[in-house]
Amino acid sequence: MAPVLINPSILSADFVNLERDLQRIATADYAHVDVMDQHFVPNLTIGLPVVRRIAEVSPVPLDVHLMVEDADRWAPQYAEAGARSVTFHAEATQAPVRLARELRAGGVRAAVALRPATPVEPFLDLLAEIDMVLVMTVEPGFGGQAFIEGTLAKVQRTRAAITAAGADTWVQVDGGVSRDTIGRIARAGANVFVAGSAVYGAPDVAAEIATLRTLAAHPTTEA
Ligand code: DX5
Ligand code: ZN
Fold first, then answer.
1. Which ligand is nearest to the CA of 87?
2. Domains in the chain, number
3. Could you tell me if residue 110 is inside a domain?
4. Which range of residues forms the domain containing residue 73?
5. Is residue 222 part of a domain?
6. pLDDT over 60 (residue 223)
7. Measured in angstroms, how far is the CA atom of residue 99 from the centroid of ligand 1?
8. Looking at residue 91, what is its pLDDT?
9. What is the pTM of this model?
């Protein structure tokens, strides 16, 4: 069984008090770091120098989600910057297998992300090359968007193919993950849950992480 992991997205943290807000998620599994270049997505966040410092002070390892063009050029530099896991978008790479191999050779977990309208099928024969598939459950670019229900079927197909292949690839979801949605996403087969606004918008961040973890690990049939 794949482990249940809760990775809060620091996109919803206070960027002026990042070190404090990283400490607030010390009970999480990874800190999810959204890198956006204003070209692949219509938003701009942080780049290499800031990620490097975050890696130095974070109490948990970094799960870097690159929403940038030309991932073949940039992704390996995030491995060097101190990430534990580097996710590049399928739509932003010319050679996903070469890139994944380069990332693994750099000592990090390699993951491929799919926009809501990007099919997973082209990657199902390549599962041995990647450590995680990120099924985007909103259009990438912004926190606080509503979960897209139609993405659940892709989560199910991804998990079914991984099980059939006997692989240990993780399935991550990102976007609109909350108390209301995490149960059915877990039942669909995801095991890594990114949550930004749900975690940082909660009155007690640590308690929210614990609640999401419980709901993901023991999804009830009705939730
Ligand atoms: C969106 C980012 C997400 C974002 C999720 O493009 O990839 O990581 O922070 O935010 P919520 O959890 O608020 O939907
Ligand atoms: Zn993300």
1. 2
2. 1
3. yes
4. 5-217
5. no
6. no
7. 24
8. 98
9. 0.98
Catalytic residue check, 34: yes
CA of 36, nearest ligand number:
1
Within 6 A (CB) of ligand 1 lie: 9, 11-12, 32, 34, 65, 138, 140-145, 174-177, 194-198
Task: For the beta carbon of residue 126, count every other beta carbon within 10 angstroms.
Answer: 13
**147: pLDDT strictly greater than 90:** yes
Residue 223 lies in a domain: no
Distance (Å) of CA 189 to CA 48, 89, 107, 219, 223: 32, 20, 26, 11, 15
Residue 117 sits in a domain whose CATH number is: 3.20.20.70
> From the DSSP assignment, how many helices (H) and strands (E) are in the chain?
8, 8
Q: Which amino acid is at 156?
A: Q
Confidence of residue 222 (pLDDT cuts 50, 70, 90): low
Q: Is residue 14 part of a domain?
A: yes
User: Per residue in 5-52, pLDDT tens?
Assistant: 999 999 999 999 999 999 999 999 999 999 999 999 999 999 999 999
Catalytic residue, chosen from 29, 63, 131, 174, is 174
Record the tokens describing residue 183, joined without a space.
Answer: 């149960």
